[in-house]
Amino acid sequence: MAFLLSPGQRVVAAGLAAALAAGWPSRLGHETWSPPPPPTELYVERTGPAVEQLTAYEKEGRTAEAALIRKIADRPVATWFADSDTTRVGRVMVAARGFIPVLTLYYIPHRDCASHSAGGAATGAAYSAWIDAVAAALTGHRAIVILEPDAAAQSLQGCLSTTQRAERYRLLTRAITTLTANRGLTVYLDGGNPAWIADAATMARALRKAGVARARGFALNVANFETTSANIRYGARLSQRLGGAHFVIDTSRNGNGPARKSSGDRHWCNPPGRALGNPPTLKTGRDLVDAYLWIKRPGESDGACGRGAPPAGRWWPAYARELASGA
């Protein structure tokens, strides 16, 4: 049954909803009402490349391929924000209402050291303004935020000047401070992976300079293939050096572990023979590991690095099927 409210009643109803959302108890008659509990389940997209591919395969009667893509389409994956457009943030939060979305912010200046995912904000000031806009759009919402994949680890690789490296640490610290002002956001600063900056003490120093102490902790294995167990061991060593910081692990493509190391980027850029890893969950059974997440979106390319791969971030059905068939 639908109830029509007068303008005055709508104002009262709106005020009540706001009070409940703010966590204020409200007494109506003889009953005390409490706000609804916060969301506890990760958000699964209802649109996107995997969902669209699944629909297309089902319409074409390609049931075997559809079954493979469903392994991706039915799972929660991160939404990436990697350009100047921040209007999508609000739309994602509306779509994710009642669930916890995972948001990856990837717009730091000098991004990816001019490699396949080069780009980012033109200046530090532009980046800070972008972070401010994202934070404003997230006001009143709950989300997991993965902050700047590769940014801290690449600061150790020599691709930034001394001035650029210092600026990066300042920008990351400011971003964490701005985002964590919203108590509904759980922020993890990217911390590389076990096979990249193998010395945990070195990686921990970079994370401290980048302000990780203000975040919940750090994220490991984003867009990479190192095993879950290797990441847990590495994360524990980092955590010891970071005051017991918690961490999350990207398990989207680590089901078969990493490819054999070889020359160039073939070790990490769309390597063959990989598989989907642990399904996303907020219950890992590990004290320090807050979640297994699919931060890298399975089926989206790492870059145009051979085998007909499209540019970084583009949907690649063949690779999606390969990952799903290996799981």
List the topology elements.
Elements: H1 7-21, E1 26-28, E2 31-33, H2 49-59, H3 63-73, E3 79-81, H4 87-95, E4 102-105, H5 124-137, E5 143-147, H6 151-154, H7 162-180, E6 185-190, H8 200-209, E7 217-220, H9 228-241, E8 246-250, E9 289-293, H10 317-325
Parallel strand pairs: 3-4, 4-5, 5-6, 6-7, 7-8, 8-9
Antiparallel strand pairs: 1-2
> Which residues form runs of ≥5 with pLDDT under 50?
1-30
The class by helix and strand makeup works out as: alpha/beta
End-to-end distance: 47 Å
The largest sheet is: 7 strands, parallel
Strand order, sheet with most strands: 3-4-5-6-7-8-9
Distinct helical segment count: 10
* Average pLDDT taken over every residue: 90
H/E topology pattern = HEEHHEHEHEHHEHEHEEH
Tell me, briefly, the overall form: globular
Beta strand %: 5-15%
How many beta-strand runs? Answer: 9
Quaternary status of these chains?
A: single chain
Kindly provide the radius of gyration, computed on alpha-carbon positions and rounded to a whole number of angstroms. 21 Å
Helical coverage, percent range = 25-40%
Structure characterization notes:
- With 327 residues, the chain is an alpha/beta fold.
- 35% of the residues lie in helices and 12% in strands.
- It is built from ten helices and nine strands.
- It has helices at 7-21, 49-59, 63-73, 87-95, 124-137, 151-154, 162-180, 200-209, 228-241, 317-325, and strands spanning 26-28, 31-33, 79-81, 102-105, 143-147, 185-190, 217-220, 246-250, 289-293.
- The strands form two sheets. Strands 3-4-5-6-7-8-9 form a seven-stranded parallel beta sheet. A two-stranded antiparallel ribbon has the order 1-2.
- Helix 9 (228-241) links the parallel strand 7 (217-220) and strand 8 (246-250).
- The longest helix is centred in the middle third of the chain and has 19 residues, at 162-180.
- Residues 1-30 have low confidence and may be disordered.
